[in-house]
Amino acid sequence: MKIKSLFVGLMITSSVSFAQVKTDSLIVDKVINDSIATKNILTEKSPIRASLYSAILPGAGQLYNKKWWKAPIALGLVGTGTGFTIYYNNLYKKYRKAYIAVREGTPNEFKGILTPQQLAVIQDDYKRKRDYSVALTALVYLLNIVDATVDAHLFSIRNDPEMTFKPTLIQDEMTLEPVMGFAFNFKF
Predict the structure, then answer these.
(1) Cα–Cα distance between 53 and 43 in angstroms, integer?
(2) How far is 110 from 94, CA to CA, in rounded Å?
(3) Which candidate, 83, 63, 84, 64, places its Cα nearest to that of 73?
(4) What pLDDT, in 10s, does the model give residues 91-106?
(5) DSSP alpha helix (H) spans, the chain
(6) How many Å apart are CA 188 and CA 186, to the nearest integer?
């Protein structure tokens, strides 16, 4: 068993250490009349790195993508789900232990207070709540990773000066009055 776990660990570390992703920055040269006029630096974020950061610690991928406000939300949601899972698991174990003790006839803290049927219903309820909590926590954890990956993919587009999305004033055709609108500019 130790050999298998050592082998799996070596495979994971070797695949991570030999993976080469070099997409941290990209220099774009604007050529005007066969001469370089300006250099714009478009920073790109590695989606793989953002995914790994979020997989290791929820919210770390959002910090890598410079989405500071999303990091505490992701960490808080996963932490809250983990807390509920532990809480419901402890209650489930407590009532399961009491149920087994009542069925065997040994003394417990609920002897004379709850019947075996009531203990069975209560333990099933806490087990269901624990299972829902595990499922929702896993879903939030995966959404955290997906969010970090998508933000890393869209990072260069969001900061690209050639593509803008901004509010603008538009003249209404019927009343000829200015109204607020959005303009999407794409230069190529």
Answers:
(1) 18
(2) 10
(3) 63
(4) 999 999 999 999 888 8
(5) 2-18, 47-56, 60-64, 70-104, 116-158
(6) 7
